[in-house]
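re: ur question from yesterday

yeah so i grabbed the chain u mentioned. its 427 aa long if i counted rite. heres the sequnce exactly as i have it in my notes:
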Amino acid sequence: MQKTFENIMESHRRLLFWLGPFPIIALKKYDDIIAISNQTQDRDNFLNFANEWLGTGLLNANYDEWKKSRKILAPAFSSLMLSRYVDVFKKKASLLVDSLEPAAASGQEFDCRDTLIKINVDTIVENTIGVPINGTGEEGKQFAHAVAQAFHSIMKRMTTPWLYPRLVYKTYLKLTGKENVIQQYRNFPAKILKEELNNKENQKNLEENNNSLKTIISLLVKGSLQEPTFTETRMRDELLHIMIAASETTSLNVGFTLLMLAMHQDIQQKVYEEICELFKDNDDALTADHLFHQLKYLEQCIKETSRKYTHATVNLRRTHKECILADNTIIPANIIVIPLIHLANQDPELYKNPHKWDPEHFSDEAVKNRPKGSFMSFGYGPRSCIGDRYAIMSIKTQIVYIIRKYHLSTNIKELTRDHLTTHLAML
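ran it thru and got these structure tokens back, copy pasting raw so excuse formatting
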């Protein structure tokens, strides 16, 4: 279905269609997407189709509630707090390298997805609560699998009109056993939150040291004291959304970037040389400043992966008033808009050889020659991703540690759409 839809979109700038009773317009040009992003701030979840899985948080809250969440959580992603996360990034990246040792020693190709997701779940959990953990173990692994099921189930409902009625969908979830999966993966962030809420020492520190740097948990707790809507359930949902975004996005990018480096040996060598120049004889050289301002070529590779294999493929909006697109076309009120970011990222007007993975797409010169805001893998406008710098820093760290230890190779010569499967990823 997706391939057919994308084939149709190749010859259309926009496409108006109906899904059940819903009028929908799909956009693929960056200037249209920027225009709609600036004029529509409320997300549309097809009558809240995702709420059984996601609850309400940064990914799907209405604009007013989203603004409250963003204000409460923004300090956790400031430059100062991001610097404090680096030690955890390094520790978990080192564990990742060790966990890959058996597969590397075998010399056989292997799937590193589960390993990556587990490491990234552990990373965001430790950075969320601000204290060392020994690993989330089986719970983290189950959470990662539940996230994949969640996105698959949401997409199925969106594309299956008979599942639109809530009662029918609830029955479907019960009969298929997905109701238990929902409970299981909501319990994971709920358990983390409850343990912190019950930690009297943390509560005392929060009350006595209001001006100190805050963990995500402490910010949520403080927000609950200031906003009546920040119930324990809402805090759990916010934590759930952060854990999903931080683990899924990072794992996908690391996995695809490693595969691309394995396929492009010359580029892997350039990345390796850049890393060696940074470390030289100091094994612990990686700092926040390096992750912010250096490793430029590695960052080009990471951004090119985000462009070519866009993680956030669905960003639903609803027009609550008339909206004007780039060429003055008017979209009426009450229309669902689907900005197809992954197609905008393949626009030949923006990227030379758009179907080729090429880090030079993000050289200083190439970026300067593109319109501002045309790279939208982390969103655009007021509702862009709050954790984009967190993601880049975490991805950089993991790839640095892996490339220092291992040389990557693969028998795969080319990736096409036939090799890829896509599930819903929301931004």
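noticed a couple things. The chain has a mean pLDDT of 84. also The longest strand covers residues 14-19.
anyway ttyl
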